[in-house]
């Protein structure tokens, strides 16, 4: 699975608990995850499996409880500012300034990255994603909000893309454009962590998939044209459901 270069994401035995005592919830329980440069890794699991918590730790939004998480060779909690200049993130639900136009929102996002003018591929991506940047953010549909986030993420060269349900609200034509963008980014050497409930999307893009259940990586499998990812995923999910039923959980 690997390359000779250092991994863009390296997580080992990662744990995180929210709350204390009887109300404590263990969101992560010894998770392992790795993404190498130029690799697209699918990050799969049902709601509550620990995917969002993992992504928040990788982005430096919350601190890990125990274990290690390295992003681009650095600690995402203590080196968040430096890391964020080298990665891009597309959230499942994009929230932007409602009074700004799409173009003004892109200006603001690019400014946060330290750019003093439009990103190199901004115009090209606006055209490819069929986005009207003159409209106010408040008038955008969910799909158009995602397009703004995608333009911001893919218009500059980054070392890591963290994509969390990135095609929310996109129509099938734009989903295909998204897939082309991911392939192009990986071809430039960008590492891509793709968290998605759309198994066909992961199968089409990823070379490997990590399946997470109850805060643990229960499988890490290479994806080939013959891989039936849906069957593998459902098998793990049913096993976990059966275990929960047997223990009364």
TrEMBL record:
Top EC group: hydrolase
CDD domains: ABC_DR_subfamily_A (cd03230)
Segments crossing the lipid bilayer: none
One Pfam match: ABC_tran
Molecular function per GO: ATP binding; ATP hydrolysis activity
Topology in the lipid bilayer: Peripheral membrane protein
UniProt subcellular location: Cell membrane
Keyword tags: Antibiotic resistance, ATP-binding, Hydrolase, Nucleotide-binding, Transport
PROSITE patterns: ABC_TRANSPORTER_2
Entry GO CC: plasma membrane
Predominant localisation class: membrane
Domain ABC transporter: 9-239
Name of the featured protein: Daunorubicin/doxorubicin resistance ATP-binding protein DrrA
GO BP terms in the entry: response to antibiotic
SUPFAM superfamilies (alphabetical): P-loop containing nucleoside triphosphate hydrolases
Enzyme Commission designation: 3.6.3.-
Family statement: Belongs to the ABC transporter superfamily.
